[in-house]
Amino acid sequence: MKQKIYSSFLFSKLGVFLFFVLISLGSKAQDIHFTNFRMAPLSVNPALTGSFKGSYRISSIYRDQWRSIDNSRPYATPFISGEYNIAGGLLLDQDWISGGLSFQRDQSGSLNFRNQMTALNVGYHIGLDKNYLNVFSVGITYGNMTRGVNLQGITGEILDNTAPGTTPSPGMIFSGIGGAPGEEQRTRSFSTLSIGVAYKATLDNGSLIRFGVNAGHVNNPNASIFSGGRDSISVGGPRPGEQRDSFGPKIVLHGEGSFLMTDKVRINPAILFQSQRGFREIAIQSTADYMLNPEKQMTVIGGLGYRIGDAIELIGGIQIKDLKIQLSYDVTTSSLTQAGGGAFELALGYIGRIYKTPQVKPVIFCPRL
Question: What is the DSSP string of 139-161?
């Protein structure tokens, strides 16, 4: 049996790195996900760009997880976006167009493996009635994405412990990732395109229902940092007819409601389904809003969720007028519990309104009246 060991890099950290990189690169990883996905609508569906009552909206989330693996370099994911409702009455009497910018960065562990994207989002909305009680929306996201890894400290290869001349067992094969002499970073940039649609219905009592679908990465970009030859990572190899280096298309289905139960209580159920390269994720959650102080428009928020096969979601927050702050903690229920427990998120959202000063023409009264 042969075994290659490196003195220049601790095996424990390399093992953790391999675990997550093999999942994210060799297995066509999913995009980032958030427990507070309703606080980051542009991360779910570009058709939600501008789908709010107001002039502009600012959204942000910071996710922190698996900190016990390496306290100095946590697995951190910040997201921030800004949207503005630009103009209405373009093609129809009850339509409007919206624009938005979003930025996200996913940074993982000691080798600083990262995904970063800056995106332009455009939404077009059509009110199906004069009161905008039913709205159909379509949106497009065009983003520039960069993936990268720190190559310092990696000088060799890890192979399956197999006898010479035998075929390695199916599973993890990791070889030749080390950079050229003097090469500290390796990155790859590519463009990605997503298209989505959504529908929102407002009920007579002020309750609402919204659902939509988003087709992400429809251009199927090549996203591999280590492509072929001496830079290869695989887990079982590509599927028949697939390009191993492609990022892979993504389908997102989402639905949510906000139901007025009493004058002070709202129930807000939601579901999110994501599928990408054979990986699937289903998150089901519900929060309750309680109007604590009607005069100050202060509402407290609490709820639970479950990401099937992965984590129980604990959610809480507060909203004062148009500012909303929400916290969550994921209690990991899968085997990843051994990687450091749960995940923490802090989410902020603000909707602003710009009111134009009316232009009042002076009235001159006739002196004879």
Answer: EEEEEEEEEEEE-TT--S-B---
204 CA to centre of own chain = 32
What pLDDT was estimated at residue 279? 85
**Cα separation, 245 vs 297, whole angstroms:** 51
Residues 6+ apart with CB under 8 A from 186: 148, 149, 151, 179, 225, 226
Domain limits of the chain? 11-278
The span from the CA of 157 to the CA of 135, in Å, is 55
At 54 the pLDDT is 93
pLDDT in tens, 174-228: 344 445 555 566 778 889 999 999 999 999 888 999 999 999 999 888 777 765 4
* CATH code, 11-278: 2.40.128
Say how far apart CA 360 and CA 221 lie, in whole Å: 54
Phi and psi at residue 252, in whole multiples of 5°?
Answer: -125, 125
**312 pLDDT band (50/70/90 cuts)?**
very high
- The β-bridge relationship of strands 279-293 and 265-276 is antiparallel
Gap between the Cα atoms of 300 and 290, Å rounded: 5
- Within 10 angstroms of residue 49's Cβ, the number of other Cβ atoms is 33
**Of the candidates 100, 147, 106, the residue with the CA atom closest to the CA atom of residue 125:** 100
- Measured CA to CA, the distance from residue 103 to residue 113 in angstroms comes to 17
Whole-angstrom CA distances from 357 to 55, 354, 360 are 15, 10, 9
As a whole number of Å, the CA-based R_g of the chain is 25
pLDDT tens-digit map of 120-137: 999 999 999 999 999 999
Enclosing H/E stretch for 19: helix 11-21
> What is the enclosing helix (H) or strand (E) of 107?
strand 95-108
